[in-house]
Amino acid sequence: MIGLRNSFVNFSWKEQKLGRKKKSESRKNDYSVITNESLEMLTEKYKKNIVSSASKLMNMYNIPKTEFQDMFQIGVEGIMKALCSYDVTRGSPFDPYAFKTIYNGMEVYARRYYPYKMTGKNKFIHSKLFNLDSFES
Questions:
Q1: What is the CATH T-level fold of the domain 29-136, as seen in this structure?
Q2: Cut 0.90: pTM above it
Q3: Are 82 and 102 in contact (CB under 8 A)?
C-alpha cells in the first residue's frame, strides 16, 4: 500500500526539501551595489513613510523620542534590504514591498528592545500610574 501511494507522488518531501534553495542563498543582501546617489534619492522618496512608521511604532511600544534617529536609520536599512531582495519577476510593484520591509525592520527592533506593547488596557493602566507618580512628587 505504501509503495502504491508513493508512485503517485513525483518525489518525496525530503527530495523536495533538498531541492529548494535556502533563503540566505537566494536573497543575499549585497549592499555594495547600491550607490550613494541612489540611496539618497530613495531616502528622500520614502522619508515620509519612514517618519510615519517610526512615530507609529514609537508610540505603540512607548519608545523614548531620543531613539528616533535609530529608528530612522533602521528605516534606511530597510530601503537597502528591499532594494537588494526585490524580485522583478514576481510582477508586484516595488513601493508596497519597500513600505512593508521598512515597517517590518522597525518593528523587529521595537519588539527586541522594547517588548512591552502599549495598547488598550496596558496603555490605560500606564497612563493612570504615570499620573499617580506625578502627584506624589
A1: Rna Polymerase Sigma Factor; Chain: A (1.10.1740)
A2: no
A3: yes
